[in-house]
Write a structure and sequence with these properties.
The protein is of the alpha/beta class. The protein has ten helices and 13 strands. Strands 3-2-1-4-5-6-7 form a seven-stranded parallel β-sheet, with helices on one face. Strands 10-9-8-11-12-13 form a six-stranded parallel β-sheet. Helix 7 (270-279) links the parallel strand 11 (261-267) and strand 12 (282-286).
């Protein structure tokens, strides 16, 4: 079989969509095919840095913001704007493919990245939402419309009640669904523990900076050995006691830092949760305001003794850090790479 060209396009909404696509891109390369990368913003930067030898297509930005006030009104207006962006990015995809044919499209939560006569897959773990029933039904109908042009939906999880995404991936849809297992770019490393706590900041502004400021107030004078990863190459901090501080770390360095840390503190994004199970890390999860799916995931996993969750005021954080149990070994089926390879081979 001649090498196939696979366009893979993660959403630029935090870094999780881009980073979880890294092992998928590696699988495509290992199978002897040619990935073409497509994204925007910091996610595009991460992909180009990880795979500088691959072609890259710039896509329109979704320009997601998180206002501190009037969030419901913002999202009501933003929904209409997003459909315009979907249309624009679909135009970019059509123009590119008309000049540069591809054999498969894999979109991670970018609903305009498909082509009518080319197999197109959407990756998402969110088929339903932790909203009140009436609002949830309206949103789910809209999501069904957005997913309808795709030939298949890949869910980065396992089926059943013991999965990671819980109710978010539990709804049936008309598009065929395949559970490909959780996606993480990291591997568990046998390294010496050097840090009591790794603080990993990410997500949209202004909440990333607000959380950083609040954590400095709570942890700034702690005698714990800490490493801070600020999640923004442009953010600089003076030394924090004996802690190490990094504006940004690439995948390999971050992998090593997390494995060398006893506990991780971060937002409760789904990609982060997949990483912590993969690495067998204890974690304190802080949901991003205005993201009910993060609040749901923090509550769901915070019930386990090796996870904890605190609100953005960080009340009880110091106590939570003292009472986390070691994480049980990850279930083997959670990270069965064969599932992802089989799903790819079916389309290639």
């Amino acid at each position: 079989m001649s090498p196939r060209r696979v366009l893979i396009a993660p959403l630029n909404w935090g870094l999780g969509h881009a980073t979880r696509c890294i092992p998928l891109i590696q699988h495509i390369l290992a199978l002897g095919h040619e990935p073409i990368l497509a994204s925007d913003g910091l996610s595009g930067h991460v992909l180009r840095k990880a795979f500088p030898q691959l072609s890259f297509l710039a896509l329109p930005s979704y320009n997601i913001q998180y206002p501190i006030k009037w969030r419901a009104l913002y999202w009501w207006k933003k929904a209409k704007d997003l459909e315009k962006v979907f249309s624009n990015e679909h135009g970019v995809i059509r123009n590119y493919i008309d000049a540069n044919p591809v054999d498969l499209i894999i979109s991670d939560n970018r609903y305009g990245v498909y082509y009518e006569h080319i197999p197109s897959v959407i990756i998402t773990h969110q088929l339903t939402f932790p909203f009140p029933v009436g609002i949830r039904e309206i949103v789910c109908r809209k999501v069904d419309q957005w997913i309808a042009p795709f030939d298949q939906c890949w869910i980065p999880d396992i089926p059943g009640p013991n999965n990671l995404s819980g109710m978010l991936s539990s709804r049936s849809i008309k598009v065929p669904v395949t559970f490909i297992g959780p996606m993480s770019r990291f591997v568990a490393l046998d390294v010496k523990k050097e840090y009591d706590l790794a603080v990993v900041l990410s997500g949209p502004e202004p909440y990333r900076q607000i959380l950083l400021n609040d954590l400095l107030q709570v942890l700034g004078k702690s005698d714990r050995k800490m490493v801070w990863i600020l999640g923004d190459p442009n953010t600089k901090l003076p030394p924090i006691g004996d802690s190490e501080v990094y504006s940004y770390l690439g995948g390999r360095a971050l992998n090593e830092m997390l494995c060398a840390s006893d506990i991780v503190l971060s937002r409760s994004g789904y990609s982060s949760i997949m990483d912590y199970y993969r690495l067998n890390r204890k974690a304190v999860l802080v949901p991003t305001p205005g993201q009910p799916e993060q609040a749901y995931l923090a509550k769901r996993h915070g019930k386990r003794p090796e996870f904890a969750t605190v609100g953005n005021r960080l009340i009880g954080l110091l106590e939570q850090l003292e009472h986390l149990a070691p994480l049980s070994p990850a279930l083997p089926e959670l990270y069965a790479n064969e599932t992802k390879i089989i799903a790819l081979q079916e389309w290639l």
